Amino acid sequence: MISQTFDRLVDQAWPAFERVDRDGWTLRAAGGVTRRANSVLPLGTRADLEDAVEEAEEFYAGRGQPCVFSVGGGATPGLDGLLEARGYRLADPTLVMTASLAEAVPERSGKGAGGGDAGPEVRIAAAPGREWTDVWWSVDGRYGSGRGTATRILTGVPAAYASLGEEAVGRGVPQGEWFGIYCMATVPHARRRGHAERLLGALLSHGREQGAEQAYLVVTEANTGARALYERLGFTVAGRYHYRVRG
Predict the structure, then answer these.
(1) Other Cβ atoms within 10 Å of 19 Cβ, number
(2) Other residues' Cβ atoms within 10 Å of the Cβ of residue 106
(3) Are 96 and 241 in contact (CB under 8 A)?
(4) Neighbours of 148 (CB within 10 A)
(5) Does pLDDT of 91 surpass 70?
(6) pLDDT, position 145
(7) Residues 206, 215: contact at Cβ < 8 Å?
(8) Residue 27 has what DSSP assignment?
(9) pLDDT of residue 119
(10) Mean pLDDT across the stretch 57-75?
(11) Is the pLDDT at 1 greater than 70, yes or no?
(12) Which of 129, 172, 196, 234 has its CA 20 to 30 A from that of 161?
């Protein structure tokens, strides 16, 4: 089932370091840093749906965290409606977008979006240096003192870390035939210069070199600017998911 494929790819590319498997559901925790790593991945069918939800609630209550479910196309049938009835609010509707690496935009390392000098070259490393993490955390650091935990999550699997100096970064995760794009971030003063397009092009080229055939990324429905960029570069919507948050 292709919907479960994306659920599993995203889970594998952003691995929580505490994982408990319960009859097809995976209860994930990572100190409360990012919903993705601190939510239930509820795949397959469960005859004991009410009991399963209550068990998940106990798991997160024991860690002092709200109970959160990631509800994608492969989620247990009937779960979303049950959670809504139990008072769980819907959060962060998200699109999964894909593109063929045979057709995706190539790296553009010459002129910038405005026709001038593109600035520093895209660099790709096997680990995120301090400069890479500084840029990413300055843009996406929504978790206060959780920077160390977030870095532990994103380095939990082999990945490529692309950067344009101190202005923009991105992360690519090789996953067999798939190549996942994550952590695309540009500091505010450097936006609208084509940095995201150059970074994405470099990462996609790297994915092809690793033998991947398809690329995917996730973007919130509300992020219309990023969605427009990805569509322009050949990505189309292939799946969706959202979170259900207790309380």
Answers:
(1) 14
(2) 10
(3) yes
(4) 11
(5) yes
(6) 76
(7) no
(8) E
(9) 61
(10) 97
(11) no
(12) 234
Question: What letter represents residue 244's amino acid?
Answer: R
pLDDT in tens, 172-229: 999 999 999 999 999 999 898 999 999 999 999 999 999 999 999 999 999 999 999 9
Residue 46 structure tokens: 């469960």
* Pairing mode of beta strands 214-220, 236-245: unpaired
Please state at what angle helix 147-154 crosses helix 130-140, rounded to 10 degrees: 110
Question: What pLDDT, in 10s, does the model give residues 108-154?
Answer: 443 444 444 456 789 999 999 999 999 999 998 876 778 999 999 99
- 3-state SS of the chain? CHHHHHHHHHHHHCCCCEEEEECCEEEEECCCCCCCCCCEEEECCCCCHHHHHHHHHHHHHCCCCCCEEEEECCECCCHHHHHHHCCCEEEEEEEEEEEECCCCCCCCCCECCCCCECCCCCEEECCCCHHHHHHHHHHHCCCCCCHHHHHHHHCCCCCEEEEECCCEEEEEEEECCEEEEEEEEECHHHCCCCHHHHHHHHHHHHHHHCCCCEEEEEEECCCHHHHHHHHHCCCEEEEEEEEEECC
Tokens of 213: 């055939």
Q: At 55, is the secondary structure helix, strand, or coil?
A: helix
**Which tokens in the block code for residue 163?**
């950067």
